Amino acid sequence: MEYVIEMLNIRKEFNGFVANDNITLQLKKGEIHALLGENGAGKSTLMNVLFGLYQPEAGEIRVKGKPVKISDPNIANDLGIGMVHQHFMLVDTFTVTENIILGREITTAGSIDIKKAEKQVREISERYGLSVDPQAKISDISVGMQQRVEILKTLYRGAEILIFDEPTAVLTPQEIKELIQIMKTLIKEGKSIILITHKLKEIMEVSDRCTVIRKGKGIGTVTVSETNPNELASLMVGREVVFKTEKKEATPKEDVLEITDLTVKDTRGVSAVNGLNLSVKAGEIVGIAGIDGNGQSEFIEAITGLRKAESGSVKLNGKELINQTPRKITESGVGHIPQDRHKHGLVLNFPIGENMVLQTYNKRPFSKNGILNFKEIYKKAKSLISEYDVRTPSEYTLARALSGGNQQKAIIGREVDRNPDLLIAAQPTRGLDVGAIEFIHKRLIEQRDNGKAVLLVSFELDEIMNVSDRIAVIYEGKIVAIVNPKETTEQELGLLMAGSNRKEAGEHSNV
Ligand SMILES: Nc1ncnc2c1ncn2[C@@H]1O[C@H](COP(=O)(O)OP(=O)(O)OP(=O)(O)O)[C@@H](O)[C@H]1O
Ligand SMILES: [Mg+2]
After folding, report:
1. With a 6 A CB cut-off, is 404 part of the ligand 1 pocket?
2. Distance 39 CA to ligand 2 centre (A)
3. What are phi and psi of 477, to 5 degrees?
4. Percent of the chain's residues with pLDDT above 70
5. pLDDT at 184 over 70
6. Same domain (yes/no): 166, 47
7. Full-model pTM
8. Structural domain of residue 349, as residue ranges?
9. I want to staple 315 with a disulfide (CB 3.0 to 4.6 A). Which of 18, 256, 258, 331 is the partner?
10. Are 507 and 368 part of one and the same domain?
11. Are residues 216 and 126 in the same domain?
């Protein structure tokens, strides 16, 4: 049996906190090996150990049977190990090629030979079916394209073993299909892959084996063809997981959010939202379904004050809020779980505890006469951390050090706890494990049952269908249909999202 990588009995601590406790993972040549575990279980930590970013306190790593010491990422590269991180590490102002060759520049007579590098990038991208524009600037390309750049970067460095840390969490369903194809091509070309994902469907679809870890401990490795999603979920969580959210009938009341004729331009100045009309009532959850790029980001940014609207009206409880500052909008009773948790959700270099009062720190009891009361701030943070099961060594840990999913849970806790009249949740369960998703869905429904308005934007059709009371389909910057989740199907929604009109999509009621 040939293992290309063996991680044996690995232990990794952070100041006494044990993130990896005696974990073993063995990767066979030519397999896709899934790594599954709850948020904070220690998956990224284990992979960072393999990539040389962390040194383990105990255990052994072998590459093709030979014990190795991977003291930094350059050594990992030399051993043929490449990693595509959970949060990308690209230079925004550089081109695709410049990012790929960074640190490995080819020079001719002392100057960088960019033409030659571009040619090489083209060659690799064709071979692995990863089409990109070598001359495009990172800030101008989509997240899916940025991810391809990260993959190319590892291949350019000669990676034989690729680690993907939650690659699909940031992708749209179409991009996920493409990535799965790319992974299959990589395997055909002789590579081996470790794949971290919370989506059990993806594990079932592409991987050969799956190693499960729980709270830092190895649970075991299963052969995917001999297991099923329910078994995987209970192995990882340690209990049965309910996939369908229970909820009673909604009792919608007055309009909380009323949007009329909203128009918004995108970053390039092209119209992205084109006369959008929508209302969300107290006591209901309205889900926005749409294919990425149909104006949903610009729409949410405009109504939360992060982007200027060109025209139209956005009323909250009858009060005009268009083009107000984010703070003014927040204070008028809007909660926002942002799509980009790093840009708009957290101050990464602040302790997680202080991040949990970002909207309220200037109010009593957290401050008085301009002086912060850290005792009260941390008291509040501590209770939210326990209520929302944010797994962190302590409330003083920097937000940066929390696992991706736990950063997300912290933001959700902060926004829901303020009990806003309108809660806007953009991709709220992105990167969360199945248990955490179940918990978050319950909290959204609870807000609704307490008479609040909830606006949910998600690319996960399952989530839209399960949680929403009404589904608004967005297409080319307009709401083109409102459907009742009980009377529609994923197929019908898919057609509407692709812009086919009501008749073609079949009968559905307007609720
Ligand atoms: N640099 C660090 N300093 C302190 N604690 C850390 C650090 N990095 C990770 N941890 C802690 O180790 C634990 C495991 O984190 P890790 O990022 O490996 O989880 P994960 O399984 O990748 O979770 P997710 O699915 O949410 O990404 C977490 O409790 C995290 O807070
Ligand atoms: Mg992680």
Report:
1. yes
2. 7
3. 80, 10
4. 97
5. yes
6. yes
7. 0.87
8. 340-419
9. 258
10. no
11. yes
Tell me which ligand sits closest to the C-alpha of residue 36: 1
pLDDT of residue 471 exceeding 90, the answer is yes
Pocket test of ligand 1: the residue of 403, 408, 437 to mutate, having most ligand atoms within 8 Å of its CB, is 403
Alpha-carbon span 427 to 450, nearest angstrom: 22
Instruction: For 71-104, write each residue's pLDDT tens digit.
Output: 999 999 999 999 998 788 899 999 999 999 988 7
Residue of 45, 54, 164, 388 best suited for mutating to test ligand 1, as the one with most atoms within 8 Å of CB = 45
If asked whether residues 171 and 295 sit together in one domain, one would say: no
Q: Whose CA is nearest to atom 12 of ligand 1?
A: 19
pLDDT value at residue 509: 44
Write the DSSP string, 330-383.
HHTTEEEE-S-IIIII--TTSBHHHHTTTTTTTSTTTEETTEE-HHHHHHHHHH
Residue ending a domain, among 353, 384, 419, is 419
- The answer to whether the beta carbons of residues 469 and 452 sit under 8 Å apart is no
Select, from the ranges 133-147, 183-197, 234-248, the one with the highest average predicted confidence (pLDDT): 183-197
Instruction: Name the domain boundary from 368, 402, 419.
Output: 419
Coil vs helix vs strand at 210: strand
Q: How many domains are there within the chain?
A: 3
Q: Examine the domain organization and report whether 509 and 448 are in the same domain.
A: yes
Nearest CA to ligand 1 atom 9: 401
What CATH code is carried by the domain that includes residue 432? Answer: 3.40.50.300
Nearest alpha carbon, ligand 1 atom 30: 402
Give 19 Cα–ligand 1 centroid separation in angstroms: 7
Q: Are residues 173 and 277 in the same domain?
A: no
% the chain with pLDDT above 90? 78
CB of 435 closer than 6 angstroms to any ligand 1 atom:
no
